[in-house]
Write a structure and sequence with these properties.
Oligomer: single chain
Radius of gyration: 33 Å
Mean pLDDT: 87
Number of strands: 28
Distance between the termini: 120 Å
Shape: flat
CATH class of the largest domain: Mainly Beta
Length: 478
């Protein structure tokens, strides 16, 4: 009994002591907690001392968006276009060119000497194209070539040692891989968004071509893309170009979850064609095709339910020459599986006329492989060389010799050899005038003159110098 009483007393003493100690700790803690201070910055630094750094600066390996975007942003440009016939104003104090409508998009620098790839729809029908760099430098661009069938265009600015985006491998990317989209949505310069590849070889039916030769084999992503992103870069996490952002799937006109990019494997071929010839050299099988699915396979009693059905073979076509007939199901091009029309179109479109490809197809349950040499739209295996005209609207032009350019301290130009009745004479231009700029875009030779005038509409600003050294500026009603 005595021991029990002692035990209870000990418990009571411990409880009282604990209460006293807890109260003292609480008062001390509250006192320090409510201590006044005069600097939030110092307070934050004090409270975060010893804590781990923000995890955003320790991204898992393979997810370092920071280094990727820093590699690419300077190689993506803002493209501003002007539309309309335009009006010139000439007076002793100023010369300016007014246009009624403006638009904008994006572009990707692909060479250090100023070649830029963008979408055809970004610069189509533009009277002037201005390129704004990431560092706010501005250039006027010339159109080297355009291809509505793939919605691609190649521009050139007069510059050197530019940052550019290296080509990557769009064939190797797979759904689920991270990608970044860089562009200028809503005129917001150098915007970077991230997403994953959602699908490949998508056909969404947005391109139109007068010969029905449009190619849609888009990379689908969920990276946010909006109006103004068109023509911008889709890159992998190595900072390599895998696509040119082109379209969005939307019911509102703005981003709704999915965007689409032209794969760089197709971009490379189209851009090289535009660079060399000013137009795309398309190799064609010469067939009309449709997708094969389970319903088609049942209806036609096919032995497979994937591939591309040949509905018609054009006379004199590459397909006819190789023995392909209506009802065959194409399953591969150059040993690469094709399960849809868009996949077949992309693989064939990578080739020029005269190139040989292998076609795998199934006929009556049996597999066949044939070699075929592709033809152009005229049914020939030849490359179509561009025509370089030396006469335009009442004026004859000629190249300027290197010695004369050196004497006049010019980088390039085209001489007006003879002016007869027409637009050039109406503008006041005389024989011997050397054209150096059209709408502030440099003219280096006859090829330049042809490519620039081919896409010009409305009023054109003509600058240059006579052989006497006298400078001239004219307004040409084109």
């Amino acid at each position: 009994m005595k021991r029990a009483i002692i035990f209870i007393l000990i418990i009571l003493l411990v409880a009282v002591a604990g209460g006293i100690i807890g109260s003292l700790y609480t008062f001390r803690y509250l006192d320090s907690h409510f201590t006044t201070y005069t600097s939030i910055v110092e307070r934050q630094q004090m409270r975060f001392t010893g804590r781990d750094a923000d995890s955003a600066f320790r991204a898992p390996r393979g997810l370092d968006f920071l280094s990727t975007s820093s590699k690419v942003v300077s190689g993506v440009v803002h493209i501003r276009t002007s539309y309309g016939s335009g009006v010139f104003s000439l007076n002793p104090l100023e010369l300016y060119f007014k246009t009624p409508t403006r638009s904008s998009g994006s572009g990707v620098i692909i060479s250090d000497d100023g070649y830029i790839v963008t979408n055809n729809h970004v610069i189509e029908d533009a009277t002037n194209i201005e390129v704004v760099m990431n560092n706010n430098q501005r250039f006027y661009a010339k159109v080297v070539g355009m291809d509505p069938s793939t919605d691609l265009a190649l521009l050139k600015i007069k510059a050197r040692d530019l940052p550019f985006v290296k080509y990557g491998d769009s064939d190797g990317i797979q759904p689920g891989e991270w990608v970044l989209a860089i562009g200028n949505p809503f005129d917001l310069n150098s915007t970077v968004t991230a997403g994953i590849v959602s699908a490949k070889a998508r056909n969404i039916g947005i391109l139109r071509d007068r010969n029905n030769l449009q190619v849609e084999a888009f990379i689908q992503t969920d990276a946010a893309v909006n109006p103004g992103n068109s023509g911008g870069a889709l890159v992998n996490l190595n900072g390599e170009l895998v696509g040119i952002n082109t379209a969005i799937a939307t019911a509102t006109g703005s981003y709704s979850g999915y965007s689409f990019a032209i794969p760089v494997s197709l971009v490379k071929k189209v851009i090289d064609d535009l660079l060399e010839f000013g137009q795309v050299q398309r190799g064609l099988l010469g067939i009309q095709i449709s997708d094969v699915d389970a319903n088609v396979a049942d209806r036609l009693s096919l032995s497979i339910n994937q591939g591309v059905l040949v509905n018609r073979v054009n006379r004199g076509s590459a397909a006819e020459a190789s023995g392909i007939v209506q009802g065959d199901v194409i399953t591969a091009i150059d040993s690469r599986d094709v399960n849809s029309v868009s996949e077949l179109q992309e693989w064939v479109a990578r080739n020029r006329p005269g190139n040989e490809i292998s076609v795998t197809f199934v006929r009556s349950g049996e597999k066949h492989v044939v070699k075929t040499r592709l033809k152009n739209s005229r049914g020939k295996e030849d490359i179509v060389e561009p025509e370089i005209k030396s006469e335009w609207s009442g004026a004859v032009f000629e190249e300027v010799s290197y010695g004369e350019l050196l004497k006049l301290k010019l980088d390039g130009g085209v001489a007006v050899k003879q002016v007869t009745d027409g637009k050039w004479k109406d503008a006041g231009i005389k024989d011997g005038f050397i054209i150096t700029y059209l709408d502030r875009v440099s003219v280096e030779n006859l090829v330049d003159l042809n490519r620039i005038l081919e896409y010009k509409r409305g009023a054109v600003l003509v600058e240059g110098v006579y052989r006497t050294g006298e400078k001239g500026i004219y307004g040409l009603d084109w």
